[in-house]
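Researcher: Please predict.
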Amino acid sequence: MKFLHISDLHIGKYVNGYRMLDDQRYMLERIIEIIKEKNPDALLIAGDIYDKSLPSAEAVELFDSFMTEIAGLHGKTGLKTFVISGNHDSPERIGYFNKLIELNGIFTDGVFEGVARKNTVECDGERVNIFSLPFIRPSFVRKVYPEESAKITDYTTAVRVVLEHSKINADETNILIAHQFVTGSETSGSESSLGTLDNVEPYVFEPFDYVALGHIHGKQIMGKNKNIAYCGSPIKYSKTECRNKKCVIFGELSNGNINLEEIPVQPLHDMRIIKGTLRELAENPISDTYDDKTDDYVFAELTDENPVTNAFSTLENIYPNIMGLEYVNRKKSIEMTPEMYGKTEGKSNIELFSDFYKMQNGKEIEPESVKIIERIFKEIGGVNDETD
């Protein structure tokens, strides 16, 4: 069986006030192209379709257009699509009209109903069970299984209880689509988390040949058999993701053997960090390996020693999609020690100031600045180069 694993589309999301809908439309078109190139038997969408439980009309329209194309591919190739809700989605909206759209090979699982829903797909004479588990919390599971509430103490036990009731035959070929934090995964900063309280231990997924996860925005593959995977979001949604390489995961599963391929996806507008003085960034917009992509979403890190007037508006004229600006220079606080005090003996005020400047800025003071300081010292008290 061949499958394509995607997640965390977050359609309708705004980042720092910027609407990402055009970028999301471009990315969904790219995913359609990949499906046509790879011809998978199944498309696995592991939650967070939208960015909020009440998505905008434009966001719903965009996803509807995407799914209409997916339904058309089902008619041509037999592609089956499995969709679950994530923590950002409205479960009821994800499951809307699910019985009707199943006629087009689209199986949605929005509302948690106590078990991981099972669908069986036949590919090349092999039967593969695909289980869908929407995002759950321990409180969801306790309501369904009140007689077992005492042992549902955290997210791991909650998922374990659900899977125990899902009638999984470990001797068969099984795939799970889920939307949870798994212990060992690393967050990027744009996901909501409760520290380690909402982690799920990987051992609960042992009956599965592949676990297609959503929730983490960076690609990660884990588990003792390297069969538990986050494909990550196909678009960068935070500064912490700027250096990530985005991809979708294409997998082939046969007789219990799994082979995974990461297919890179290039966004319409990348998100990156540019660093330098204001003059450097204004005069030379090319950064790293980017070919003058000034319309990318950028975060500017200015190395100027002091704030520059109208810095943001200056950069905005060059980088129209600038998302933020901060100063990151070499100034640092110095903890004075008795040894440092000893070094001041016999030094003039100018020498002491020069030493202080070097400690704060990591470089020698310029000769022109020394002349200015000398003049200021004389004006405020007649202090000269003689040691006090």
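Model: Residues 210 and 227 are 5 Å apart (CA to CA).
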